Amino acid sequence: NDVIEPDDFTFDAFYALYHKICPRNDIEDLFQS
């Protein structure tokens, strides 16, 4: 079952997954500032 429940897929989960797929330091800097 490859359906993701919206309740399980928080922004933090997306953010961690996103960084594994395509790490971008400039975007990280945006979130830190």
TrEMBL record:
Highest taxon listed in the record's lineage: Eukaryota
Which stretches make up the Phosphoinositide phospholipase C beta 1-4-like EF-hand domain? 1-22
Can you name the source organism?
Bracon brevicornis
Specify the taxonomic lineage. Answer: Eukaryota, Metazoa, Ecdysozoa, Arthropoda, Hexapoda
The name under which this protein is listed is Phosphoinositide phospholipase C beta 1-4-like EF-hand domain-containing protein
